[in-house]
Amino acid sequence: MKIAWWQLDMRIPAAAAAAVEARLLDAGAEAVTFLEGDDSEAVFDAGDIWQNSRCEALFAADSHSETTLQNLVRDNDWRSYAARFTALEEQDWVAATQAAFPARCFGRLWVTPSWDAAPANALRVLHLDPGQAFGTGAHATTALCLRFLDTQVRGGESLIDYGCGSGILAIAGLLLGAGQAYGVDTDPVALQVAAANAERNGVSAGLQFALPENARLPLADILVANILATPLLTLAPALAHSVRPGGWIALSGILHHQEAEIRAAYEPYFDLAVAQHEEDWSLLYGQRNTGV
Question: Whole-model pTM?
Answer without folding.
Answer: 0.73
